Amino acid sequence: MFIFEFNNTIMCKLKSAFAITKYIYPIEETELFAPLGYTFDNPRTDDEVKIIIEFLNRSLQVRNDDHNKSNSWNSLGIVDQLGEFMDHVHKTDAGSYADGFYQDKSRKKDSIIELLAKSWIIVRYEDKEGLFEQINKDSNNIFKVGWGKFNTEVQKNYHQLLCLSHILSLLAHNQPGHYYGETFLLTESSFDPFYSVDRFVLNNVLEDYKGNCHMYRVDDGRKSWLFWLNGKDALIGASDRLQEIYSIDPVQEKNKKVRPSQKQSVKQKINHIGNHLRMTYQHRLDPELQIVLLVGIIEFLLTRNPDTNRFNVEDSISKQFNLKCAIAIANEIETPNMNEINEKLKNLYSLRSDVAHGNYIGEIGVDKFVNATYLLCDYLQNIIDTYIERKELIDYLKDN
């Protein structure tokens, strides 16, 4: 086992539980979401780096002998692009933390996988039970503390992190018209760092990283939000904005019925929305189901149960959806075309109803469902942005 020196001390334990992201870049520990204690960081101990290396090798199904490991990683073609990127960082950001990391003499001893593992960005979160450390000490402990159990604190904390990551990704991405729910997290469950992820998924992350290392050096190159230097400001900015309302509790008016908008706290709403975004992304190969889930999130934020004595329920909710969505969406558009927005919303809700009620839709091409998913993600981004900036407006729309 190699030794990773940090601050001139050798540390063998884990600092915390952590999730693995799709970002690769040397960083100092950076606050992600203060109310829940989440931070971005790199692996800081020899054991943490070892976990990342073994996770990457398992995921890519790299054979265990050193010769094949080296050949497998070198064959990915990352070495040249990363070398040129490191030179670019030195020229454009000399003296920065990342430049210091890349220029450190000990880097010359690192293999490509060691270099990537030490600069892979993780999200740290709380593990009061010490389950990560128990599994790290003895991998068999995973069957005692994790296998078949779904109610440990570390699993609950990870689930909350995963849900939040989907909201922050929705708010921070730079793919309008093509975003379908992807999150910046790579691992999908709390104990994934001790297992693996799908080889195809990790291959895509590494191919994107290689391409982004090149494109970052090109002035007019594509700037992916899943490359740390391109996406960090939008991601942390979205987190900062969300934190401004996160701790707001419901308002209970004396001697009055609880208003629909006040039945949950902001924290409860964020968790609920994030969980449904998580499920939406899990069903990314089923755009019909994605449409139902995404419309459901919007209905949760904006619509209320109609008076069944006065209205046809389906008709009333449809009208609420069109009118209230249009108002919330227009709040985020400089010169909105209200007629165009209204027509698109009508079509989206009609499509959702066809799916939800089992109507025959065999003649509708899959492209229409995929494009509807993209549009719903764009509109949901607008609505949540409005909720953060003008919570009282969204609450008013919900109640009336």
What does this structure look like?
The chain has 16 helices and six strands. 56% of the residues lie in helices and 6% in strands. It is of the alpha+beta class and 400 residues long. Strand 1 and strand 2 form a beta hairpin. The chain folds into two domains: 234 residues, no CATH class; 117 residues, no CATH class. Helix 3 crosses helix 9. The N terminus is likely disordered.
Q: Sheet bearing the most strands, described?
A: 4 strands, antiparallel
- Give, in spatial order, the strands making up the sheet with the most strands: 3-6-5-4
How many beta-strand runs?
6
What structural class is derived from the secondary structure elements?
alpha+beta
Mean pLDDT: 89
Query: Order of helices and strands, N to C?
Result: EEEEEHHHHHEHHHHHHHHHHH
The overall number of domains is 2
Q: State Rg.
A: 23 Å
Percent of residues in helices comes to: 55-70%
Low-confidence stretches: 1-11
Strand percentage lies at 5-15%
Number of helices: 16
How would the global form be characterised?
globular
Q: Kindly report how far apart the N and C termini lie.
A: 63 Å
Write a compact overview of the structure shown.
The protein is an alpha+beta fold and 400 residues long. It contains 16 helices and 6 strands. The protein has a 4-stranded antiparallel β-sheet. The protein has a two-stranded antiparallel ribbon with strand order 1-2.
